[in-house]
Amino acid sequence: MKEKNYKSVFIWVLVFITIIFLMRAVNQIKLEEEITYSMFKDLLRDGKIKEVRIRNDLIRGTYVLPDEKDGGVKTSNFKTVPVTPDLKLVEELEEKKITYTGEQEKGWVTAILANVGWIIIFLLIWFFMIKQLQGGGKQVAAFGRSKAKMQGGKKTKITFQDVAGCDEAKEELKEIIEFLKDPAKFQKLGGKIPKGVILYGAPGTGKTLLAKAVSGEAGVPFFSSSGSEFVEMFVGVGASRVRDLFDQGRKNAPCLLFIDELDAVGRHRFAGIGGGHDEREQTLNQLLVEMDGFDTKEGVILIAATNRPDVLDRALLRPGRFDRHIVVPIPDLKGREEILSVHSRNIKLAPEVNLMVIARRTPGFVGADLANLMNEAALLAARKSKPAVEMADLEEAIDRLIAGPERKSRMISDREKKIVAYHESGHALIAKLIPGSDPIHKVSIIPRGPSLGYTLQLPTEDRYLTTKSEILTKITVLLGGRAAEEIIFNEITTGAENDLVKVTEITQKMVCEYGMSEKLGPLTLRKREEELFLGRDIMQRERMYSEKTAQLIDEEVKTIIKECEDRGIKILKENIDKLRILAEKLIEKEMLEGDEVDKLFGIAAS
Ligand code: ADP
Ligand code: ZN
Prior knowledge:
- There is one protein chain.
- Strand 3 and strand 4 form a beta hairpin.
- It is elongated and about 130 Å long.
- The strands form three sheets. It has a five-stranded mixed sheet.
- It has four domains: 2-109, Signal recognition particle alu RNA binding heterodimer, srp9/1 (2-Layer Sandwich), CATH 3.30.720; 149-327, Rossmann fold, CATH 3.40.50; 344-403, Helicase, Ruva Protein, domain 3 (Orthogonal Bundle); 414-605, Methane Monooxygenase Hydroxylase, Chain G, domain 1.
- Residues 135-142, 271-275 and 528-542 have low confidence and may be disordered.
- The protein has helices at 3-31, 37-45, 89-96, 108-114, 116-134, 148-151, 167-181, 183-189, 207-218, 227-230, 237-251, 263-266, 278-293, 314-317, 333-343, 355-361, 367-383, 391-403, 414-433, 468-489, 497-512, 529-534, 538-541, 547-574, 576-589, 594-600, and strands at residues 33-34, 49-54, 59-66, 73-80, 99-102, 196-200, 222-226, 255-260, 300-306, 324-327, 440-444, 454-457, 591-593.
- With 606 residues, it is an alpha/beta fold.
- Helix 7 runs parallel beside helix 9, helix 15 (333-343) packs across helix 16 (355-361) and helix 19 crosses helix 25.
- It binds adenosine-5'-diphosphate and zinc ion (ZN).
- Zinc ion binds next to helix 19.
């Protein structure tokens, strides 16, 4: 137990004692009147005493007096201190025929027992009050302590083998592992080891996993906590949790302290509309104080994770604090394949399964998504009592993760189905016919999630740069669904809404952010999102351009969209027979794979 626990026990005892004394006092004031011994003797002689309870040092009892107001009698309790042992008292009592009895000295225990009910009630009220204020079912005794102790302190078995697709981050962390393995060696050499490392990356990219793997590789205990736990309702609680976390670190050195969601505490101090947050500021200050106060030589390393590096307080990033920054990226194609294979280690895969194909189908998926995907596929295979997970299960799992489960039960009329089929064929055909657009992976008119159908194109490789003509192609493909509806049915349905949202977004970005408009020139006109988030100078930045420029932007966006639409319509009109073939096939089969589409047009499968 720590000093703090003794303190709280002491406070509790104090509270008990106070309650008991209070209750005794209340008893006595209300119920017993202290009278002199001579008065007691007078009352006794006058025959007013009704009964007495005799103790060595105290006599208690009741006496009756005629009530002046209503002529009845009034019974009162009294107590009095006897003068020396009054040997004649019993005789006198006998004479007046008064009931009398001896009484034992009341001890502590009796007093507490007599008040047990009250104490319990008080305890319950106290307990619930604290629970409510804390907003969770945490133990009263643990109040103000870092939860890290409960979560961590164990050595993990996770190693770098369990983390895939972030080799650079692993490479950078190796130095820290070496240090944690043998802090003394580094001390001798006098090398400078970072105190704190920040892992930047989107949620689910494996930051926590990496930190755990570092402690696993080094064989040191791992203490984890989260920034959000440090921001509590009570001012001061967060700060004391930070203190505890570091205390634990020092005691268990060499070890690794991990703080998830650092941005919850580490946010820029004047960020956000509505000014500061006292509790958070105190916690942040405590964190800075602790970081400055400990020496890396002690063998404690702090790793923090965040997905909002832009909002972190500069003070945290200064040398001697979190001075090492490591990016944990969203995995690329190869990374995704590796992560998939890590997560399929304990899953039986059918021999036909090609994880590369799955990786290609899942751009933008992070580690957590891919882990989820594997798990979902295994569940699907199990549900169908298959001996191993097949490609179809993995595909189905992707579809579920992207668009929600298939809505097989949903009924669509034949006409609706036809419209959807032409719409999707429009997208697919344009994608097929414009050279250089991403290959089609799948076209489907099976309703999924909120959409009625979808056309899935997959880039052959992950791209970081996109050219203007690629963006224009993308817009044309997106508008293709609507164009097909217009050509075939001479009217447009609401089904293209989602496409139009995307088109508008992309086009606006082209004009305002990428500077791809000829009329406006190479300018970025959009305010950066981070700045907006920070709430700094919102007022000044809201508008960076004039009314006239705004009009020009609108015109440019319209022109680009119109050009793309015309291009799409032209392509579809020229290939209307192909459009019909594809749509009819879709109506028949509901779903076509990329190579089936190729076969339909007599193109060799790519
Ligand atoms: P973060 O802390 O970045 O939000 P986590 O480390 O909590 O992400 O990742 C959640 C889960 O996703 C992990 O437990 C692991 O199963 C899986 N995962 C994430 N990234 C990877 C990766 N790079 N390699 C293997 N598994 C990963
Ligand atoms: Zn569409």
